Amino acid sequence: MVYSDASQVFGELISGDGKKLLSEITGFLPEGLTVRTAQPHLNTLNAKLRSRGYAPDLISAALTLTSLRIQGKAKFGEAAADMFFTRDGLEQATRGVIAERHAAAFVQAGAHAVADLGCGIGSDSRAFAQAGLGVEAVELDATTAAVATANLSSYPTARVRVADVTALDIDTLRADGVDALFVDPSRRTGAARGSQRIYDPEQWSPPLSQAISWAKTIGRVAIKVAPGIEHATLPPTWHAQWTSVDGELVEALLYSPAMGLPAGRSACVMRSAASGTVFSTLIDEGARGNCAARVAQAPVGVLGSMLTEPDPAVIRSGGIATLAEQFGAHLISGSIAYLTADSLPAAEWWTRFEVCSVVPLRMKAIKKALREFDPSSVEIKKRGASIDTGAMQRALASALSSDSDGGEMTVFATRLGDTHRAILTRRLDHAGNRTSH
Ligand SMILES: C[S@@+](CC[C@H](N)C(=O)[O-])C[C@H]1O[C@@H](n2cnc3c(N)ncnc32)[C@H](O)[C@@H]1O
Q1: Which atom of ligand 1 approaches the CA of 187 most closely?
Q2: Mean pLDDT score, 182-205
């Protein structure tokens, strides 16, 4: 069979023959494959499946989906095995654990039915439906909408339609019972234009100002924005929250006043734990009452015996001064987000390092100092210094002795006050023991 377009192949993939093919592929694959280990297996399946009479386009789509399901485990865990993806859709999709947080925020705000405007493959919509919310998902791209429809097929309270959200009548949505909006605008050019990041929020689809204006009609609105967005451009009465998962910055979200959070900014730090994901929130005290407030300057002082690297969500939200105040710490230099003091407790807001030595930021000096500690490996971090960390890492490797059991050291290439320095440290775990990254 020859298919006329991607939508038709996808239609086949989620029905009779496609489902049978997908389960045959799963049956051929060993358990526990990763993206890397799966590829050789998938490569050998093509000919085998053709001999069973499946159309080449369908085989290719099924193998791609199988590979994306394996890749999708990083965002969705085991649930990815039954989900449908496009490559772009998976890349842009909200992680399962974060989508659940979005859903919880709507439930907490008293919403009953959410319109997911630009729903992609439906990761957020799925979490909304799982939380018992009605879902009106809208997507411009027909193939992506078909994928979202497949992902939402077991949720009777969810429906997907193909439409341009910039032309939607929000009054009609409200009249239809929608009482909350979730907007995750496209912030990249399409694959055809190199999938480049779009920095101007007015060039996003939908544009940020339009998404914000919808809150006049339907009060509860949450909008995903680029984590690097300038604070000054944020709507002052809204709440902006930056979220990281296990130290990786994953999103920034704007909540309208009707979502019930106070005007201002915060960081949400999420960590995987045996008991599930735990999260903690740090409010930026300097932005209380004004989301667009300038970031308060933390005090600067001398390097103590402990150095910390704050979580990226705290840095982006502007909460460094709050953190410094709370723990009696200070910056090592005006614009460099490393906090220091002689003693600082373990906290979810930062990673701690014990300072071992400080030398000029020159290879000869660093190598000489490293030899004293005889580490077995070195990790380089930089802020405020224009060095090539890869090149520095390679150059320092020659200073390490191959039979050392001296553990790992972290070298910070940075500034102390106005001078460039290398700070040699040991990473500490929560209990204060030396550890490696
Ligand atoms: C960042 S993705 C959404 C990802 C989604 N939150 C998820 O977790 O799967 C943005 C989506 O918005 C869609 N989109 C962009 N402009 C749109 C418009 N004007 N109308 C409807 N959908 C649009 C894109 O096709 C894309 O699928």
Answers
A1: 1
A2: 87
pLDDT digits (tens, 9 = 90+) for 135-159: 999 999 999 999 999 999 999 999 9
Whether 184 is in the pocket of ligand 1, judged by its Cβ within 6 Å, is yes
pLDDT of residue 17: 80
Q: Are 286 and 298 in contact (CB under 8 A)?
A: no
Q: 198 in ligand 1 pocket by Cβ < 6 Å?
A: no
Residue nearest to atom 10 of ligand 1 (CA): 186
The answer to whether 333 and 300 are in contact (CB under 8 A) is: yes
- Burial letters for 412-430: b for 16+ Cβ neighbours within 10 Å, e otherwise? bbbbbeeebbbbbbbbbee
Percent of the chain with pLDDT over 90: 73
What's the pLDDT at 1?
A: 60
Would you say the CB of residue 124 lies under 6 angstroms from ligand 1? yes
Give every CB contact of residue 20 below 8 A, 6+ residues apart in sequence.
none
Quote the mean pLDDT of the chain: 92
- The residue type found at 315 is I
200 CA distance to ligand 1 middle (Å)? 17
| Token pair of 25 as six digits | 């592929």
Q: How far is the CA of 120 from the centre of ligand 1 (A)?
A: 5
Distance CA 331, CA 287 (A): 19
Asked if 303 and 338 count as a contact pair (C-beta separation under 8 A), the reply is no
- CA distances for 167 relative to 170, 211, 259, 348, angstroms: 9, 12, 24, 43
Distances (CA, A) of 231 to 185, 234, 239, 247, 418: 18, 5, 11, 21, 27
Which residues face 420 on adjacent strands?
Answer: 415
123 in contact with ligand 1, CB cutoff 6 A: yes
CB neighbours of residue 193 within 10 Å = 8
- CB distance 206 to ligand 1 below 6 Å: yes
Question: Which domains are assigned to the chain?
Answer: 6-83 (no CATH), 93-287 (3.40.50.150), 306-428 (3.30.2130)
For the stretch 314-369, pLDDT in tens is: 999 999 999 999 999 999 998 899 999 999 999 999 999 999 999 999 999 999 99
- Residue pair 152/99 in contact by the 8 Å Cβ criterion: no
Mean pLDDT of 280-287: 96
Query: What tokens does 399 get?
Result: 């200073």
